[in-house]
């Protein structure tokens, strides 16, 4: 009964300490004002024509998807990348590691009990013995021990726990950022591979035409109809295009290798056939929303804010160092000079040892730690503001490109049509003997350039949609949870 009473009293004191531990010296957190404009430039470029509330809901629903659309092959490749990419796997493991660190810090706020057993044998010299003779004493004890438990009167332990929690949440957001970055990188690389295939096909068509022109000029030269100048001009054009084909084949292979690396595994042969750049049905009507919505949507901004909250909590830790630290140590069990009597009724023993440490002189270390914590907080404020500004610029840049990219594609399409007709006319005039082969050569070069640049413009449009999608925080489900749900999730046992 004595042991039970002692432990009950110790636990009661610990519980009271938990109640008193509500005092925190950390400054009250206040989110810094976003250093950006209230609206994006060119925000009407991607407007959906719906009301603000409806547009915001549409944006959130759209951005929660894993892809921007695209063909079936891209969607299958994205699924493989999310499953196999090593960088994403590393960030997921890091989240679990930081979660474990948080659970360690959270455990420090609760008292702990340990079953202990000690055996001590001590010799006392005659000069120090009350009896004047050398003596040998033994002490045996066993029981339950409450190790030094800090009564968190000034919130030091609570602030440490809060800092650990915010660091964990920041690591989660870093994982979300990696998720978005992977979806964006795979999509861009896939579109780049499609562009390489299309440019290679165009180059091969141009090479076939150059081969035919060279053969015709050679026949004409051998028949004495064409000059050697025309023959060598056709030959030079053929070799130039052949070099372009080889270069584009190299670019295509490199693009494929880069995509395989991002996916984390070889691309299965059973994947659906790819579509063309022109047939990719991406979501191109994203309402940009407001910069204030970006603060709660983009994981990198949320991560920066969690880091700021952690720095804010660390100020509370540094301030608590100026105040007394109170710790409790307790023991309840049995103690006896003889091991055989250790568990006899008369051997019951208990110890209750509170300890208080009041900092008097630390050589300025506590003040320096507080200054360092405040400076770290200011650094995190600057990082948070910089992250917001960078996010704002990424959205604004994507909107600016979206404003003109369709005009560029229309112009390039018209240019290809005109260049095609010019090439047909120049070939006909050359065969009729009206123009020299140089006219055909120039027309062929113009057509090839126009076709390549049209592919590049289409690729730019798709890449810009991917950039806007990522800049707005797309690619992951940001369904919010309450503080209680977060705590329950973090403390759940594996």
UniProtKB/TrEMBL annotation:
<feature type="signal peptide">
    <location>
        <begin position="1"/>
        <end position="26"/>
    </location>
</feature>
<feature type="region of interest" description="Disordered">
    <location>
        <begin position="115"/>
        <end position="134"/>
    </location>
</feature>
<dbReference type="GO" id="GO:0005886">
    <property type="term" value="C:plasma membrane"/>
</dbReference>
<dbReference type="InterPro" id="IPR003423">
    <property type="entry name" value="OMP_efflux"/>
</dbReference>
<keyword id="KW-0472">Membrane</keyword>
<dbReference type="Pfam" id="PF02321">
    <property type="entry name" value="OEP"/>
</dbReference>
<protein>
    <submittedName>
        <fullName>Multidrug transporter</fullName>
    </submittedName>
</protein>
<feature type="coiled-coil region">
    <location>
        <begin position="193"/>
        <end position="251"/>
    </location>
</feature>
<dbReference type="GO" id="GO:0015562">
    <property type="term" value="F:efflux transmembrane transporter activity"/>
</dbReference>
<keyword id="KW-0564">Palmitate</keyword>
<comment type="similarity">
    <text>Belongs to the outer membrane factor (OMF) (TC 1.B.17) family.</text>
</comment>
<keyword id="KW-1134">Transmembrane beta strand</keyword>
<keyword id="KW-0732">Signal</keyword>
<keyword id="KW-0175">Coiled coil</keyword>
<keyword id="KW-0449">Lipoprotein</keyword>
<keyword id="KW-0812">Transmembrane</keyword>
<dbReference type="InterPro" id="IPR010131">
    <property type="entry name" value="MdtP/NodT-like"/>
</dbReference>
